[in-house]
Amino acid sequence: MSIHSEVKRVTTHVLAEMKQNGEPISMLTAYDFSMALIIDEAGVDVILVGDSASNVMAGHETTLPITLDHMIYHASSVIRAVKRALVVVDLPFGTYQGNSKEALTSAIRIMKESGAHAVKMEGGREIKESVDRILSAGIPVMGHLGLMPQSIYKFGTYTVRAKKEEEAGNLIEDAQILANAGCFAIVLEKIPASLAKKVTESVSVPVIGIGAGNGVDGQVLVMHDMLGINNAFNPRFLRKYHNLHKEIKGAVSRYVQDVRTRDFPNEKEQY
Ligand code: KIV
């Protein structure tokens, strides 16, 4: 992050101000240089190099297989493109749950080797020690509560979380623990809108929702889902802004046809 860049960069302080001013925060995932360039130019505030790369980039069923090396590769590609957005990188499964020393080592590798601006971690009170240790090294941390895909085998489904009172109470407490520890923001995934609003009002840091309604401070979506690249994923919370699956398939079919008929290349397209 150059302190001399002409574009006013989004920092964790800018996000805090946005919450205070009631200005909604936009966040989207990216995993590669070309797409990060476009979404940064389009004005997204936060780019998340999510471990959803495990699903949408690598074709795994869950986020569990992606490694720290993979995340660093994706994050450094994104960082080379971004001039304005804050770039947050997921600590992948198995790189922070063991102990806080391991968590710090993983976070330092991400910051040092990719040039990213912050890390994100799934969990509440159970990861507090790791959050403290990473924060004390000067690395900003974004929390993630509600549906936590890294724990999918514990829960068995991707259904809405915290519908029951006890789970909802625990989630509010976890959000407060993370906010009081110093997390600069918290993602809430797939929980009732009324609960997300309650959490948002009970913490001073920005709360970014995905499938968490409109009472939060900002929204995040997986880029491949909102662009309609993946046409097999259609949860209720997802708004599709394009049908890129159809567009790309149509363009590639036309290319194949043009090659087969020798229409491409024409005289102007050769030397
Ligand atoms: O990995 C990811 O893309 C995420 C978002 C769904 C918040 O964690």
Question: Which of globular, elongated, flat, extended, rod-shaped describes the shape?
Answer: globular
What separation lies between the terminal Cα atoms? 42 Å
The CATH architecture of the largest domain comes to Alpha-Beta Barrel
Average of pLDDT? 97
**Main beta sheet strand tally, sense and closure:** 8 strands, parallel, barrel
What ligand species are in this complex?
3-methyl-2-oxobutanoic acid
Sequence stretches where pLDDT stays below 50 over 5 or more residues:
none
Q: What fraction of residues sit in β-strands?
A: 5-15%
Total number of helices: 11
Give me the Rg, rounded. Answer: 20 Å
CATH uppermost class of the largest domain:
Alpha Beta
Number of separate structural domains? 2
Topology as a string of helices (H) and strands (E): HEHEHHEHEHEHHEHEEHH
CATH superfamily of the largest domain: Phosphoenolpyruvate-binding domains
Query: Which percent range fits the helix content?
Result: 40-55%
Question: Which helices and strands occur, and which strands form pairs?
Answer:
Elements: H1 12-20, E1 25-29, H2 33-41, E2 46-49, H3 53-56, H4 68-79, E3 86-90, H5 100-114, E4 118-122, H6 128-136, E5 141-146, H7 152-155, H8 165-181, E6 185-189, H9 193-202, E7 207-210, E8 218-221, H10 223-226, H11 244-260
Parallel strand pairs: 1-2, 1-8, 2-3, 3-4, 4-5, 5-6, 6-7, 7-8
